[in-house]
Structure formats: structure tokens, C-alpha cells
């Protein structure tokens, strides 16, 4: 019996239809199971979120506003001063430091005295190896009869008294501090302690300590104008970031760069001096002096107050600017 072409096509079509019909129930069951799985997942995440929120709300306590009232502030201060200068053991050790602005408002008037050039003490970081070249940068802005400051070196150098430079002192021994950064140099520890060592000299009538490198050039009038914006009786750590985006990524966007200089108020310098050596020991892996200073400021709870006038410009950038200027002269 011969099968014509129509019958063969019909037979082939029936086979394809029957095979496809068998696959439909499997696909349909999978499609129905997927929404159920997503629904259970959403319910589980929602339940977890609700339980976590209830636990968080249940464990939190309402703020006791009475402790911040004016009479209680006075009683806390009186109690702390009557126990041999030590705070009450029931109060956290950093309680007074964290609330320094609140407590100091009892003693300090809202209007602070104007800062003058004589109220600023400079701490300049330098090295004996580069001193003969770098001291010429200091001569550009230093006014011997009007300014106070110290150049801190690692070794003694030959320095003439008639050069119009700040007094020179040798930094203290830092060999007992650990330094574990393979890319840096342990002189960073010495430089980070310059503000504390300058404070220990006991200079009178100091409102601000300004830190800079031996190749930092300060615009004195602008510096005094900027510092007058702030109350020197409060905790202030003033500086700026680097103009290099890569440096800020690698180090920090919350750190004052010493190449551009930074300023620290006198009360903050005193607080820093009491804890800096212990703080340095806790961060042996940091690279330089700037990030060590920022780490200690973070422990004191003092953020960086950014002032764009403190420019951290790398030497390579200055070289290209100078080169472009010279090419424009021809």
C-alpha cells in the first residue's frame, strides 16, 4: 500500500504534536514552582527584617535629656575636679573629650580674641641631608622679628645666626617606636611628634600651632585671616586635601597633608600630647606622619576642618607648570 505525500506529512505532524504535548506538563510545573520559590524568599527576608527591627527598637533606650541640663553639667564638672583630677569611674574615659565643646561653653565666651601673628607658633619638619637647599624656602616667608617657631631636624647642622631663620632643635629619639611600613621611612614618626615637642617647650600666649615641611611656603597674611575664623579655645584640626586625586584615594580624604601645612588649636595640642605616643604605637603600619596625625585626631574625636588655602601641590606638578611657563616665553 502506497502512502501519498499528504499522509506522510500528516503522520509527521502528529508525531511532532504528540511530543510537544508531553513536554508541556513539565514546563508548566517548573513555571508554577518558580513564583512560589520567589514568594517564600520574599516572605523570609521580610520576616527577618521585621524581627531585626523589633529587636533593635526593643533594645534601644530613650535618651536621658536631664544629664545635659545646665545644673547637671556643672555637677559633673565639680565632681570630676574634686577627685584628684580624675573623672568619675561611672563615666566613660572619653566622655569629657567627646563633649569638650559642650562643657567648654560654660567657661568661654562666644566671642574669642583676635588671632595675631605673634599668637602662632610654627613647627617645621626638616632633615639635615636637605637642609642647605630647603632652608632657602623658609627664608621666603619667615619674619624673624615677628614670628615664633622651631625647625626640627634629625641631626645637628651648621647654621649661621645671621641667616634670619627660626631656631633649630633636634627631635627626640623615636627608635623605640615600631615602624612596619616597607614603602615608607621611620622618620615619619619623628615628624608626627613635632607639634607635641613644640608644645613641651612651654611657650606662652600660644593660640595655634602650625605644622609644615621645610619646603612649605606660607602666605602669612592669609594664614592669620583664616585662623581668625575659628575659636582657638576649641578643638580644631585645620588643613586640606592633596590636589592629587590618587594621593587622596591611597591615603585619606579626611587627612590634612603636611606639605600644604595644617593648624592645630592650643587645647587640642595639649590633648594630643597626652596620648600621642600611645597612639603612634597602635599604628605601626601607617606610611607617613600625616596619616599618623589623622589617626590620633580620629581617636580624639576631632574631624578635619577643611580650608582650601592649605595647598598640597606635588613637585612634579610644579615642574610641569614651570616648564610650560618657560616654553611660553620663547
How do the helices and strands line up, and which of them pair or pack?
Layout: H1 5-59, H2 70-81, H3 95-98, H4 100-104, E1 120-125, H5 131-141, E2 148-153, E3 168-170, H6 187-192, H7 194-199, E4 208-213, H8 220-227, E5 237-239, H9 245-250, E6 262-265, H10 266-281, H11 289-300, E7 304-306, H12 315-329
Helix pairs in contact: 10-11
Transmembrane segments: 37-54, 309-329
InterPro entries: DUF604
Protein name: Transferring glycosyl group transferase
Features:
330 residues; alpha/beta; seven-stranded mixed β-sheet; 12 helices
Could you characterize the architecture of this molecule?
This is Transferring glycosyl group transferase. The chain crosses the membrane at residues 37-54, 309-329. The chain is α/β, with parallel strands linked by helices and 330 residues long. The chain is 47% helix and 9% strand. The protein has helices at residues 5-59, 70-81, 95-98, 100-104, 131-141, 187-192, 194-199, 220-227, 245-250, 266-281, 289-300, 315-329, and strands at 120-125, 148-153, 168-170, 208-213, 237-239, 262-265, 304-306. The longest helix has 55 residues, at 5-59. It starts with a helix and ends with a helix. 24% of the residues are buried.
Amino acid at each position: 500500500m502506497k502512502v501519498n505525500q499528504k499522509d506522510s506529512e500528516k503522520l509527521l505532524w502528529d508525531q511532532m504534536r504528540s511530543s510537544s504535548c508531553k513536554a508541556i506538563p513539565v514546563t508548566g510545573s517548573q513555571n508554577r514552582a518558580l513564583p512560589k520559590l520567589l514568594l517564600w524568599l520574599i516572605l523570609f527576608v521580610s520576616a527577618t527584617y521585621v524581627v531585626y527591627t523589633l529587636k533593635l527598637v526593643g533594645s534601644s533606650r530613650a535618651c536621658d535629656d536631664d544629664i545635659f541640663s545646665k545644673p547637671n553639667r556643672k555637677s559633673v564638672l565639680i565632681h570630676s575636679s574634686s577627685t584628684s583630677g580624675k573623672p568619675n569611674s561611672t563615666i566613660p574615659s572619653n566622655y569629657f573629650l567627646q563633649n569638650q565643646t559642650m562643657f567648654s561653653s560654660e567657661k568661654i565666651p562666644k566671642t574669642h580674641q583676635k588671632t595675631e601673628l605673634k599668637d602662632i607658633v610654627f613647627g617645621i619638619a626638616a632633615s639635615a641631608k636637605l637642609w642647605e637647599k630647603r632652608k632657602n624656602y623658609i627664608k621666603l616667608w619667615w619674619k624673624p622679628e615677628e614670628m615664633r617657631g622651631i625647625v626640627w631636624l634629625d641631626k645637628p647642622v651648621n647654621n649661621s645666626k645671621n641667616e634670619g631663620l627660626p631656631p633649630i632643635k633636634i627631635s627626640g629619639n623615636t627608635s623605640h617606636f615600631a615602624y612596619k611600613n616597607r614603602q615608607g621611612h621611620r622618620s615619619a614618626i619623628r615628624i608626627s611628634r613635632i607639634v607635641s615637642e613644640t608644645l613641651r617647650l612651654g611657650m606662652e600666649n600660644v593660640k595655634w600651632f602650625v605644622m609644615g615641611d621645610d619646603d612649605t611656603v606660607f602666605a602669612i597674611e592669609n594664614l592669620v585671616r583664616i585662623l581668625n575664623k575659628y575659636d582657638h579655645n576649641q578643638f580644631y584640626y585645620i588643613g586640606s586635601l592633596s590636589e592629587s586625586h590618587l594621593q587622596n584615594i591611597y591615603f585619606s580624604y579626611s587627612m590634612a597633608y603636611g606639605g600644604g601645612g595644617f593648624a592645630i588649636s592650643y587645647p587640642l595640642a595639649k590633648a594630643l600630647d597626652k596620648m600621642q605616643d600611645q597612639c603612634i604605637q597602635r599604628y605601626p603600619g601607617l606610611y607617613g606622619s600625616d596619616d599618623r596625625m589623622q589617626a590620633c585626631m580620629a581617636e580624639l574625636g576631632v574631624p578635619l576642618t577643611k580650608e582650601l588655602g592649605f595647598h598640597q601641590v606635588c613637585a612634579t606638578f610644579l615642574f610641569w607648570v614651570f616648564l610650560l611657563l618657560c616654553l611660553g616665553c620663547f
